[in-house]
Amino acid sequence: MAGNTFGKVFRVTTWGESHGSALGVVIDGCPPGLELDVIDIQKELDRRKPGKGGGESPRKEPDQVEILSGVFEGLTTGTPISLTVYNKDAQSKAYDHLQNIFRPGHGDLTYLKKYGIRDHRGGGRASARETVARVAAGAVARKILAEYDISVIAYTVALGDVATSKRNMKDINLNRLHCPDIAAAARMEELIDSVRKKGDSLGGIVEVKAKGCPVGLGEPVFDKLDAALAHALMSIGAVKGVEIGAGFRAAGLLGSENNDAITPKGYRTNNAGGVLAGISNGDAIIARVAVKPIPSISLEQDTLNLDNEPVTIKIGGRHDISAIPRIVPVCEAMVCLTLADYLLRQKAVEN
Amino acid sequence: MAGNTFGKVFRVTTWGESHGSALGVVIDGCPPGLELDVIDIQKELDRRKPGKGGGESPRKEPDQVEILSGVFEGLTTGTPISLTVYNKDAQSKAYDHLQNIFRPGHGDLTYLKKYGIRDHRGGGRASARETVARVAAGAVARKILAEYDISVIAYTVALGDVATSKRNMKDINLNRLHCPDIAAAARMEELIDSVRKKGDSLGGIVEVKAKGCPVGLGEPVFDKLDAALAHALMSIGAVKGVEIGAGFRAAGLLGSENNDAITPKGYRTNNAGGVLAGISNGDAIIARVAVKPIPSISLEQDTLNLDNEPVTIKIGGRHDISAIPRIVPVCEAMVCLTLADYLLRQKAVEN
Amino acid sequence: MAGNTFGKVFRVTTWGESHGSALGVVIDGCPPGLELDVIDIQKELDRRKPGKGGGESPRKEPDQVEILSGVFEGLTTGTPISLTVYNKDAQSKAYDHLQNIFRPGHGDLTYLKKYGIRDHRGGGRASARETVARVAAGAVARKILAEYDISVIAYTVALGDVATSKRNMKDINLNRLHCPDIAAAARMEELIDSVRKKGDSLGGIVEVKAKGCPVGLGEPVFDKLDAALAHALMSIGAVKGVEIGAGFRAAGLLGSENNDAITPKGYRTNNAGGVLAGISNGDAIIARVAVKPIPSISLEQDTLNLDNEPVTIKIGGRHDISAIPRIVPVCEAMVCLTLADYLLRQKAVEN
Amino acid sequence: MAGNTFGKVFRVTTWGESHGSALGVVIDGCPPGLELDVIDIQKELDRRKPGKGGGESPRKEPDQVEILSGVFEGLTTGTPISLTVYNKDAQSKAYDHLQNIFRPGHGDLTYLKKYGIRDHRGGGRASARETVARVAAGAVARKILAEYDISVIAYTVALGDVATSKRNMKDINLNRLHCPDIAAAARMEELIDSVRKKGDSLGGIVEVKAKGCPVGLGEPVFDKLDAALAHALMSIGAVKGVEIGAGFRAAGLLGSENNDAITPKGYRTNNAGGVLAGISNGDAIIARVAVKPIPSISLEQDTLNLDNEPVTIKIGGRHDISAIPRIVPVCEAMVCLTLADYLLRQKAVEN
């Protein structure tokens, strides 16, 4: 039942298959009078484009976005904003041999069993290509956040077994992995090379930080801000875990270690990750997501075909080695969408 | 804006403050013709009752639930089910000295800043007592799951720095910590004793397992089953992280290690935690949550008072040392609520 | 699927059966800091009480409301407000003879076919008694409207074939039918007497007027203010038609007659009924509803029993002759709920 | 706040301005496996096309629809269906002289006051052209209804002061006004001619009939089927009233006249209009809507300009004389959307 809408006040509804005609999003609830240019959206899309990341021979998509409604003379009008990106380089034929076989780690089998039918071309709706629409919508949300001086940035803190030991924010844009630790980034690149040669793939961890968020966002008890962020981030295909602030590490701390003392200058520490009792506390909001390795690998795997017979499969074609770094702007987009929605939701609470 | 409803088809709306007259829940969307007795709900409430867990001198609440509507001659009628639990042992006076001071790690400050007013008595709506209503509703959801032969069980897999090394399911009910590893449970009890003496508190990790779930639950792309579970579990007050299947460990695996091979007998492994592309795959659904240490400790902490002056606070009174084990039935309840909702949502997809 | 919630930001969820233990409502999304006393609600409930209207020997219910949550020291806290009214005078035995027979004009048959089960006692959830919860919630909504100086008043403009020819607002509270035309009210009383003697019943028309509404309420294109009002009013059991402003009369007017000219002092006429293009225009909002005659009559009617056999039925017992005037505060309540919701929805649009 | 989505399970989100690049709709929640061809949608769009109705020199739009997602090899896949219609004949220049003046009876002023900005070109989002998206979505809903053998047909029962006295269904397609009374249709044409000469415009009444609806649709107490239909139909721009079954006439009937007796062969009459207690009863569902006269007239009207100065306006250009008959397929579409949604909602109730 209807799971393609995110948000309650700033509502985005996405649509589109990997190898269909186009993908897009309708944004309903964007406040009027916001300056919005197609460039604002295009530059975010360019960040997640094939070829920007660790993949070798990815699909070539210009991913050119069009604004079809909701903007008049450069300003949003309060009516729905429709954004569309046409697919140009969908080589559906490359997937013909996969239509009778279920790729391990992908949604091929669950989609077929759920819907009784599936668009096998490039994973259809289950493709990571679906995130084009998220990033496009996130760009609009980011414009709203900018009015509140809220910034959202994501970066790689682990790739496979290589973890960062630093958070040098200025390094993030100095390496294609968006890693705030240049030395770690170099080791990650070596790891990518070696894994690529083996025909295998890698996972990792992405951290997202939102700065400048006002106190008060979050709607207890079920729509707490952290619950909404967990929902938003876990809805990204490759994500298998979400934590806020100290996260899983908090489970091993004592209360006296985990509590963030309150001082006249603010909280002394930020184990809470900027959210207390489900409401933003004014500190930086920190979330981390666990990204599983790309399931498409060229190593041989056991699986079944449509006739339920055991077969083996090697997946060639145009695949990335890891969802990182292309997932980085997607994580940012989901946090932007969540915060924009909660900023608007909070308006109903305030006088 | 209105965050006290969970679910889209099986919808629960909870209400009530820790020291108000009562707490309760309205369940809208429960299918008609389901056998429902007050005992079904009472027995789940009894599992989360004060005194059942690791706390020493907790509040004594009978937590007696009443069914006020929606059931006729022992069967649900399809109309809203209203469940109410009156507060009997609310010693509000015990909180009088806390009304002008913000307890670290609690929502005192964020609630006040968000709403401009707060019911300080026992934490008001931000109290863990709010979960009474979740557990009551979860008991009804569990009745629906039973019709599909789905079972949901949660258990403690870590308390502080003591982790379980076994999953002996039959041991879970043999120790009050609901730990599937008797030896670990003993060490956990020792840890509780030592931490209690220090006046500190503990966090931990709870795992939830749902067995018997049919293939097909989950509504991509935003209402994926794992996204909904993350939302549900992260909405519990003390939870700071949620992971599905291999979770954060998956970030360090290779694709060839993480992919679950498909065989005629089913998936060979379950790193997916029962969810592929956001849709249940028929395997056990596995989620783990990070539970932060109880913020109420009797050690001295720095904080502010209402006049924004630095003060110190020691919190005495009737507090548990850890949210574990009383959070265990709450985790089960949230998973039951999610699965019941998605079972009903799936009906709209099927012919 | 879950139809017992009204509103998107100011959300009310009602529950309760005519002869169950209690009825009530949970209001989620009420702004914090609003003064709210139980008297505010009780006085509205007293207006719809049995005995207040045209019925002769109605059920005697004190309809005493309790506020169980969401209010602290006389102010709303932003958390859910739970209101409960216990049933005291439910004479369920009086309905025993009706459990095997379907009353014409009632929901007996449709409820049974929809849900496969029904609480036959007094109509269960389909009873007009359900509106107790609407009126209680409406009283809270009215407090919000008061902060904007918006007033909502309903009155009887027709009963059976007797129509009012005046709108003397000050007369409304001078007759129990809430009719703004004293002479018409007298004729309506005569009609009631004569119809009661025949054992028959009456319908009528109620008009609702909201004054002081700011320009800008309404969310095109589907949640236009008039669409929301139509939804709200048509959801009242006995209502079979809703019109705004000139309504059905507009169908016969020329454009030059129907258009409201705009002048520096405002609109010259109000055929629009205060809503243009789905958005309030600052003029009084005017809606009228057609109320069908009470279906419970003591005249003999043809119907079926549970075995699908033709039988006749005469319905005695404690019934009103007309839903008017007791429906008057219910109409007001639904308009108050709608306007409160749209006032809060509009906040997300404004800067 | 986000009012461009209709439906809860079968959810449609429309977008687009009269003179923007395109209009469209995203349908989320359409069941998979449904045969859907672009022709199914195009043929409905052709019915509401400019030039089909009473207008003299209307805009010439091919209104060619494209399916951009959600359909694979001729079948719906359960993923969102995106439909787009590009605007081809948008003569925005024709509206330049209107950008500083508020047309009486239109949303020019309310839109500006609500949003602080408006797309004046052709009425922007408030244009009747918005209904293109409704009709496109309605065509998909109709395919679902066809699987249940439900038909939905609308027809003109009054134009200005000319009312039909017959319901000869076979005549509906024999006259361009979709009137089931050929003689009345002839008089209506004469009326159109005379009103056109005067530069004025006409309203009317449209009736919609849905046959074959199963018993049980409707979700009390707020989402009753008649409440949903009222919402759906009143959300159409020109509609000022909605009634079900006997509607406003019921207000003047006695209970003994209005009640539909129940017989072994079904209900003897259908004053209920197919809905009892908010639930479909198996009889034909009958709704009527009051359509106001087109506000764009070439007669001189008083109004204001952007500087709040009194001015007069005569609206020339390409306008219809009446929203009838082009509103007829729009009314059908809204009823189709409502019924499709409620058919799917009912699945969650059934076993």
Describe it:
The structure is a homotetramer of 351-residue chains. With 351 residues, chain A is of the alpha+beta class. Chain A has seven helices and 18 strands. Chain A has helices at 38-47, 108-115, 131-147, 182-198, 225-234, 255-258, 328-347, and strands at residues 5-6, 11-16, 22-28, 65-67, 71-72, 75-76, 81-86, 151-159, 162-163, 204-211, 239-244, 262-263, 266-267, 275-276, 279-280, 285-291, 301-304, 310-313. Chain A has a five-stranded antiparallel beta sheet. Chain A has a five-stranded antiparallel beta sheet with strand order 9-8-10-16-11. In chain A, a hairpin with a 2-residue loop joins strand 8 (151-159) and strand 9 (162-163). The longest helix of chain A has 20 residues, at 328-347. The interface between C and D is large, with 111 and 110 residues. Strand 11 (239-244) of chain C pairs antiparallel with strand 11 (239-244) of chain D.
